C-alpha cells in the first residue's frame, strides 16, 4: 500500500527537550484504518503515551492532526484536531479548529505535527515548507494571541503565514486554556493550550507553498461539485447559518425551555432575546465569514457598540475595542451570557474577545464564573475573597473575571482551575455542572434527554459535538424525536458518535452535516485517497476511533462510573418553563447505550469487540 | 473587453477561488500558485479577491524585454507566453497592482488569463463575488477602498486607543 | 389572545417579531401570519400550498408553550388564550451533527 493522495504521507516530529526535528512516513495502513485527524492522533497517543502521566509534564504528546481532505477544495475543508491528554479532564482530548492553519500545514507538506518533551526556554516553531526550526520566544512570552501573531509576521517577514499560538492563559496553566489560530479560531476545550504552555511552546507558525494532490482528480471534482450543490440548496447551510451563525440557536433553545440559566438552576433566560443571533445581526454584526474552503461561512464578525466600548475598564489590551472581532458563537454567548445571567451583549463581546486574545475556552470559563456567582450569592464566597461583587447578571464581573483568569490574578487564580476543582475546594462540589471534569455546553439535559446521554458518554468529557441529539430533539432532522422521551436516544447517540468521529477524521467541519449526509462525504474521501471507502467503512472507522479513545481513558483511570450526570440534572427538576418538572433519566438510556456499543454491562469493550475492530 | 467583475461585499474569505485557480493551472490544490489572491482587510471583517485588472496601460507588457506578454484576441486578456518568458521578473516589478507573479516552480511569470473566457474562480465562488463581464475592471476598487478606509477611521475615532 | 413569537428570517418576512392571534388552532394562526406578511409566506409554510388542506412544510417548526406540534396535534393543535407559540424555519438536511 502507498499514499496516493489526500494525505501528504509525512508526519513531522519535534522533540522540544532536545530541540530536534525529524520526519516520519505516515503508515498507509494506519491512515486507511484511522483516516486522519482525530483517528491518527488517537493512535499516536495509544502507541506512545502512558495514559497515567501528568498532562502538564514533558511526557505528554501534543498532536496537531489534519485529515486527507484538509486543504482540498471540498467544502468545509479547513479542519485540524489537537489530540493530547487533557489537563482539565485527565481524558484523551480531541479539540477541533478551523480557520486556515490546518490547510497551511498540508501545503507545507505534513499531515500531522507531533510535539514531545519540554523546551528548556520559551520557543516558537517556524515551518516554511521543509524548513523547520525552533526560534526563541522569550520576547513573545506574556503577549496575547493578537500581538503574538503580528510580531511573528514582522519577525519572519512572511505575512501570509498561519499561526497557532497560546496567550497568557496557556502560559499560566489555566486548565481550560485554548490554542488559538488565525487570531479568532480555537482548539478550545479541555486545556490543550495549557499543554502547549507546559512545553514552553508559544506558537507554531506555518507557511506552505506546496500543494495537496489527490488520487483521482476527476472523481474528486465531481464529488465536490455534488457536495457543494447539496449545501447550496439546504436552507440552513445556504441561508440560516450565513445570516445568523450558530447564535440563531439562542432563541430557539430558549423557546424550548432548554437554555441553562444561572449555572443550570433554571432552563429559560429572560434576557435571551438581548443576546440572540437576531439581536447581533441587527445591532453588532459587521459581516459573516468563512474558514478556508468553506461555502457555508457561518463565522460572525462583530463590533462592540460605541457605548459599550467605554463601559468596561480593562487593565491590559491596548487594542481598539471597536474593531471587529470574530464571534460570538452560540456556546460562547450562552456560557458568558445566560449561564451567568448576563444579558449585556457588549459585556459578552468583550469577554469573548478577551478569551480569544488570552487564549481560553469560553464555555468552561463562563461555566466556572457562573459556579462562582452561585457560591457568591449563597454566601459561600465573600467579596473579600473575590475582590469585587460577583452576583449573577453582572457584566462588569464577567469581564473583570475573564481578564483576571487569563492572568491568574486574584480570584482569577481560583477560576482558572475550572468549576469542578473550585467547587470541591470550597466544599460545594454540587456547583460543578459537567462530566469528567469538563463543563457542559449550552443544552439542558433535563429538557433534552438525549443530550444527557451524549454528555455522559463523550470520551473527552461533557461535549455537545460528539452526539448532537439536538438535531433530532429540537431541529427535527433527520427526523423529529420527542425531547422528553428516552426511547431511541441510545441508538441515535451511538450513530452520531460514530459518524461525527469519522467526519472529524476526514479533516472536514462537522457543520457540513447540516446539509450533507455521509453518502456525500464518502466519495470525497475515496477520490482524494484512492481507497474505495464505503459509507460503512467510514462508520466503522468512527467506531474504531471511539473505542480506542475509550480504551485509552480506561487505562488513564477514567472508570465507566464517570459516565454520569451531576445530581442537579438527575434530581433537581427544572423549576419553570416548557420543561418544568423534568429531570434527566440517564439510567433509562445508559444500559442500552453500552449494549448497542457491544460493551459489557459496566461499560467496557471486550476483547472480541476490539479484535473485530482491528484494534491491537 | 472581458475582465473579472468583483463584488467584494459578497466575499467571505473562503478562498475557493484560489483553490480553483491553482487546480486548473497546476493540478494541485496550491494557493501559493494561484494568480487570484484573497486579501484581508479591517481586522478580518472585509475580504476581496484580487487578480489582474487587465488594465489598458498593461505595464507588464511594456516592461517585458522579450515580448513575452501578449493580448489574447478572444478575451482581451494580457497573457504570458510561457515559451518566450525568461523569468527576469521585470513585469513583477512593473505591475503597480502586484497581480503578476513569479512562479518559482515553473520559472516563469504567471498571471490571470481569464481561463480563455471561462474563469474557474468565478465557477468556484459560492457567493457570486466573482463574475466575468465586459466591465471597467478596476471600478470596484474605489468604492471598496473608501468603505474600508471609512470603517478604519470610525473605529479609530470611536473607541479607546 | 395567543402570543406568536417569530424567530430568525421569519421576522422580516412577516414584518413583526411577535403577533397576537385569537385563531382557534395552529393552522388558522398561520393564515393570520400570511394575512400580515403576504402570500409569499404560503410556500414557506406549506409543502404544496394548493393541496386541501395543505400540509406543513418540512422546514416549518412550531412550538406551543415550548412543545413541538409534531408531538401535539400537528397543524390541528388547538390554541388557547394564554398560549405562547413560537414559529421558525429550520432548513437542515443531511444528518445534522453526525
Short description:
The complex is a heterotrimer of chains A (616), B (161) and C (98). Chain A is α+β, with helices and mostly antiparallel strands and 616 residues long.
SSE arrangement:
The complex is a heterotrimer of chains A (616), B (161) and C (98).
Chain A: E1 10-15, E2 20-25, H1 28-34, H2 37-48, E3 62-66, E4 80-85, E5 92-97, H3 101-108, E6 112-116, E7 123-128, E8 131-136, H4 145-156, E9 162-165, H5 168-171, E10 179-181, E11 185-187, H6 192-198, E12 201-207, H7 217-233, H8 235-244, H9 249-255, H10 277-283, E13 285-289, E14 299-302, H11 306-309, E15 325-326, H12 330-336, H13 345-358, H14 362-377, H15 383-386, H16 395-406, H17 412-415, H18 418-425, E16 434-435, E17 438-439, H19 449-457, H20 470-475, H21 489-506, H22 518-529, H23 535-555, H24 567-570, H25 590-597, H26 607-613
Chain B: E1 3-6, H1 16-26, E2 37-41, E3 46-50, H2 59-63, E4 69-71, E5 78-80, H3 90-94, E6 100-103, E7 108-111, H4 120-124, E8 130-133, H5 141-158
Antiparallel strand pairs in B: 1-8, 2-3, 4-5, 6-7
Chain C: E1 2-6, H1 10-14, E2 18-21, H2 26-37, H3 42-45, E3 60-64, E4 67-68, E5 84-89
Parallel strand pairs in C: 1-5
Antiparallel strand pairs in C: 1-2, 3-4, 3-5
Protein structure class of chain B? alpha+beta
Rg of chain A: 22 Å
**Tally of alpha and pi helices of chain B:** 5
Biggest interface pair, residues each?
Answer: A-B, 43 and 35 residues
State the CATH class of chain B. Alpha Beta
DSSP summary, beta strand count of chain A: 17
Morphology call of chain A: globular
Which CATH architecture of the largest domain in chain A would you pick?
Answer: 4-Layer Sandwich
- The CATH topology of the largest domain in chain A: Aldehyde Ferredoxin Oxidoreductase,  A, domain 1
| Total DSSP E strands of chain B | 8
| H/E topology pattern of chain B | EHEEHEEHEEHEH
Largest sheet: number of strands, sense, barrel closure of chain A: 6 strands, mixed
Low-confidence stretches of chain A: 313-321
Determine the strand fraction of chain B and express it as a percent band.
15-25%
- Computed over alpha carbons, the radius of gyration of chain B is 16 Å
Amino acid at each position: 500500500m502507498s499514499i496516493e493522495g489526500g494525505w501528504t504521507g509525512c508526519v513531522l516530529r519535534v522533540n522540544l527537550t532536545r530541540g530536534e526535528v525529524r520526519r516520519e512516513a505516515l503508515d498507509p495502513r494506519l491512515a486507511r484504518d484511522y483516516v486522519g485527524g482525530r483517528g491518527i492522533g488517537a493512535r499516536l497517543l495509544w502507541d506512545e503515551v502512558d495514559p497515567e502521566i501528568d498532562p502538564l509534564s514533558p511526557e505528554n504528546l501534543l498532536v496537531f492532526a489534519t485529515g486527507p481532505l484538509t486543504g482540498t477544495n471540498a467544502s468545509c475543508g479547513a479542519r485540524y484536531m489537537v489530540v493530547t491528554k487533557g489537563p482539565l479532564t485527565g481524558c484523551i482530548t480531541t479539540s477541533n479548529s478551523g480557520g486556515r492553519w490546518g490547510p497551511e500545514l498540508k501545503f507545507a507538506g505534513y499531515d500531522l505535527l507531533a510535539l514531545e518533551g519540554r523546551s528548556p526556554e520559551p520557543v516558537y516553531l517556524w515551518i516554511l515548507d521543509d524548513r523547520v526550526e525552533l526560534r526563541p520566544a522569550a520576547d513573545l512570552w506574556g503577549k496575547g494571541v493578537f500581538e503574538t501573531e503580528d510580531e511573528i509576521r514582522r519577525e519572519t517577514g512572511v505575512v501570509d503565514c498561519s499561526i497557532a499560538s497560546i496567550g497568557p492563559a496557556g502560559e499560566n496553566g489555566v486548565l481550560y486554556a485554548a490554542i488559538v489560530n488565525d487570531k479568532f479560531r480555537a482548539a478550545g476545550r479541555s486545556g490543550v493550550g495549557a499543554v502547549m504552555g507546559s512545553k514552553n511552546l508559544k506558537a507554531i507558525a506555518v507557511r506552505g507553498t506546496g500543494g495537496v494532490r489527490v488520487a483521482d482528480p476527476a472523481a474528486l471534482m465531481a464529488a465536490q461539485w455534488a457536495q457543494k450543490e447539496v449545501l447550496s440548496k439546504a436552507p440552513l447551510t445556504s441561508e440560516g447559518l450565513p445570516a445568523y451563525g450558530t447564535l440563531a440557536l439562542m432563541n430557539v433553545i430558549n423557546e424550548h425551555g432548554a437554555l441553562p440559566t444561572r449555572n443550570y438552576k433554571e432552563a429559560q433566560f429572560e434576557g435571551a432575546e438581548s443576546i440572540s443571533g437576531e439581536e447581533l445581526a441587527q445591532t453588532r454584526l459587521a459581516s459573516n465569514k468563512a474558514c478556508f474552503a468553506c461555502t457555508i461561512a457561518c463565522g460572525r464578525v462583530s463590533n462592540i457598540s460605541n457605548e459599550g466600548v467605554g463601559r468596561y475598564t480593562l487593565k491590559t489590551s491596548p487594542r481598539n475595542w471597536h474593531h471587529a472581532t470574530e464571534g460570538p458563537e452560540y456556546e460562547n454567548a450562552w456560557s458568558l451570557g445566560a449561564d451567568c445571567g448576563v444579558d449585556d451583549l457588549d459585556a459578552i463581546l468583550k469577554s469573548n474577545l478577551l478569551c480569544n486574545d488570552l487564549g481560553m475556552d469560553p464555555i468552561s470559563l463562563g461555566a466556572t464564573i457562573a459556579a462562582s456567582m452561585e457560591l457568591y450569592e449563597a454566601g459561600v464566597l465573600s467579596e473579600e475573597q473575590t475582590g469585587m461583587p460577583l452576583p449573577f447578571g453582572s457584566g462588569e464581573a464577567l469581564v473583570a473575571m475573564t481578564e483576571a483568569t487569563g492572568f491568574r490574578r486574584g480570584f482569577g487564580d481560583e477560576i482558572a482551575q475550572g468549576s469542578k476543582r473550585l467547587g470541591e475546594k470550597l466544599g460545594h462540589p454540587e456547583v460543578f455542572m459537567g462530566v469528567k471534569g469538563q463543563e457542559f455546553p449550552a443544552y439542558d439535559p433535563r429538557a433534552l434527554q438525549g443530550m444527557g446521554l451524549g454528555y455522559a458518554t463523550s470520551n473527552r468529557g461533557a461535549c455537545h459535538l460528539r452526539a448532537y441529539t439536538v438535531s433530532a430533539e429540537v431541529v427535527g432532522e433527520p427526523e423529529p424525536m420527542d425531547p422528553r422521551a428516552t426511547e431511541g436516544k441510545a441508538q441515535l447517540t451511538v450513530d452520531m458518535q460514530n459518524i461525527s468521529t469519522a467526519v472529524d477524521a476526514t479533516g472536514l467541519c462537522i457543520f457540513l452535516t447540516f446539509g450533507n449526509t455521509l453518502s456525500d462525504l464518502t466519495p470525497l474521501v475515496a477520490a482524494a485517497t484512492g481507497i474505495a471507502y464505503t459509507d460503512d467503512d467510514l462508520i466503522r472507522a468512527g467506531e474504531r476511533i471511539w473505542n480506542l479513545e475509550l480504551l485509552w481513558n480506561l487505562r488513564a483511570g477514567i472508570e465507566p462510573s464517570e459516565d454520569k450526570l451531576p445530581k442537579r440534572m438527575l434530581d433537581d427538576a427544572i423549576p419553570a418553563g416548557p420543561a418544568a418538572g423534568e429531570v434527566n433519566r440517564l439510567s433509562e438510556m445508559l444500559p442500552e447505550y453500552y449494549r448497542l456499543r457491544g460493551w459489557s454491562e459496566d461499560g467496557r469493550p471486550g476483547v472480541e469487540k476490539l479484535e473485530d475492530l482491528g484494534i491491537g | 473587453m472581458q475582465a473579472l467583475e468583483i463584488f467584494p461585499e459578497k466575499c467571505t474569505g473562503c478562498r475557493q477561488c484560489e483553490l480553483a485557480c491553482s487546480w486548473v493551472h497546476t493540478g494541485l490544490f496550491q494557493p501559493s500558485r494561484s494568480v487570484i489572491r484573497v486579501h484581508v482587510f479591517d481586522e478580518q471583517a472585509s475580504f476581496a479577491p484580487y487578480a489582474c485588472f487587465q488594465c489598458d496601460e498593461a505595464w507588464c507588457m511594456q516592461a517585458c524585454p522579450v515580448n513575452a506578454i501578449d493580448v489574447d484576441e478572444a478575451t482581451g486578456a494580457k497573457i504570458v507566453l510561457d515559451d518566450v518568458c525568461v523569468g527576469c521578473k521585470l513585469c513583477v516589478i512593473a505591475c503597480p497592482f502586484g497581480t503578476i507573479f513569479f512562479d518559482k516552480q515553473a520559472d516563469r511569470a504567471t498571471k490571470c488569463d481569464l481561463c480563455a473566457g471561462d474563469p474557474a474562480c468565478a465557477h468556484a465562488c459560492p457567493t457570486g463575488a466573482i463574475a466575468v463581464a465586459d466591465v471597467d475592471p478596476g471600478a470596484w476598487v474605489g468604492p471598496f477602498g473608501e468603505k474600508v478606509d471609512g470603517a478604519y477611521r470610525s473605529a479609530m475615532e470611536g473607541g479607546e486607543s | 389572545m395567543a402570543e406568536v413569537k417569530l424567530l430568525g428570517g421569519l421576522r422580516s418576512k412577516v414584518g413583526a417579531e411577535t403577533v397576537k392571534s385569537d385563531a382557534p388552532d395552529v393552522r388558522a394562526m398561520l393564515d393570520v401570519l400570511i394575512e400580515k406578511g403576504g402570500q409569499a409566506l404560503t410556500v414557506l409554510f406549506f409543502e404544496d400550498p394548493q393541496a386541501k388542506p395543505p400540509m406543513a412544510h418540512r422546514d416549518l417548526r412550531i412550538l406551543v408553550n415550548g412543545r413541538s406540534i409534531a408531538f401535539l396535534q400537528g397543524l390541528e393543535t388547538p390554541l388557547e388564550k394564554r398560549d405562547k407559540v413560537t414559529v421558525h424555519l429550520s432548513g437542515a438536511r443531511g444528518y445534522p451533527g453526525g
